[in-house]
Amino acid sequence: MPAQLIDGVKLSQQLRADIARRAAELTAQGHQPGLAVIIVGDDPASHVYVRNKVKACGEAGFHSVLEKYEADFSEAALLERIAALNVDPAIHGILVQMPLPKHIDPSKVIEAIATTKDVDGYSVLSAGELVANLPGFRPCTPYGCMKLIETTGIDLRGKHAVVVGRSNTVGKPMALLLLQANATVTICHSATPDLGYHTRQADVIVAAVGRRNTVTADMVKPGAIVIDVGMNRNDEGKLCGDVDFDGVSEVASHITPVPGGVGPMTITMLLMNTLESAERGLAKKQVAVDPAAGMIPKPDIA
Ligand SMILES: Nc1nc(=O)c2c([nH]1)NC[C@@H]1CN(c3ccc(C(=O)N[C@@H](CCC(=O)O)C(=O)O)cc3)C=[N+]21
Subunit info (predicted)? Predict the structure, then answer.
């Protein structure tokens, strides 16, 4: 029996409908969710992604600003823009599109974003919150992968999840989210001698390497769930993932396609984080003005 497709476009539509409904409620109370997206340089793929993010904001009823800067925009000027957005009450999320030009230190830029607006979940503090099981913004791609796994109805408790890839943006946070869901987690990477040995034991495989055909049918246990985070081009220039989709579909119980799997969910969870940022800001404001709560009103920075 071929694997069931986990449809990221369909799940995104469902989640985005709910996000739009909650955004409209906030807007009616005078607190429309707002996302600022900054892009530096002229990488064409980055411009496509950024355009998609801004478009998704519009469709969800969010306010959004897109700031585009030339490749020679200075680090100091970028940090200044972030400082301004950090105190802009109309902005609840700030995303600086990666990669940045080489003269800009990405770490400096990420850490400059107010934690309350770090909707990418890329900052050291957001990463620490994830490690410590504290509330905070989850990186959008792994967060989206968890939502995709949820649609299978399979409880992760006690299941063996194998993450292939250890990037700070996907592999590492993915492993932590799976761990939070009570899976037994293995992280494999470029120095793992026999990848198939590990993946063949997996009930769930998350492939986030950036190399096509990294996971083939012989490396998958029958009935496994396979989530493909990869975004590569094949010889015909067509978008493909890290998983040999045709082969693995014959073995897995559930599989995500590329495109149409994880990609759309990344943007959906960005909207979700921005919405939740706006909701938290409003909740804080309501507590701050409630005299019964005995709180001193704080300056409006979130
Ligand atoms: N600060 C920052 N945050 C990011 O979240 C971030 C980033 N930088 N830099 C680049 C990567 C890449 N990324 C994608 C988002 C959606 C799709 C997406 O929607 N993909 C569609 C297909 C798109 C197509 O056809 O080209 C899909 O998989 O179905 C892809 C890639 C976010 N990124």
Answer: Homodimer.
pLDDT in tens, 85-126: 999 999 999 999 999 999 999 999 999 999 999 999 999 999
| Residue 84 Cα to ligand 1 middle (Å) | 26
Is 53 annotated as catalytic? yes
This model of the complex carries an ipTM of 0.95
State the closest ligand 1 atom to the C-alpha of 259, by its place in the atom list counted from 1: 29
pLDDT tens digit sequence for 138-160: 999 999 999 999 999 999 999 99
- Identity of residue 105: D
- Respond yes or no on whether the N-terminal peptide bond of residue 291 is cis (omega within 30° of 0): no
The residue whose C-alpha atom lies closest to atom 22 belonging to ligand 1 is 259
Q: What's the CATH code, domain 28-114?
A: 3.40.50.10860
Q: What is the CATH number of domain 140-262?
A: 3.40.50.720
In the chain, CATH 3.40.50.720 sits at 140-262
Taking the centre of ligand 1 as the mean of its atom positions, its distance from the CA of residue 268, in whole angstroms, is: 11
Question: Which residues have a Cβ under 8 Å from the Cβ of 194 and sit 6 or more positions away?
Answer: none
**Residue range(s) in the chain whose domain bears CATH number 3.40.50.10860:** 28-114
Would you say the C-alpha torsion 47, 14, 283, 30 has a positive or negative sign? Answer: positive
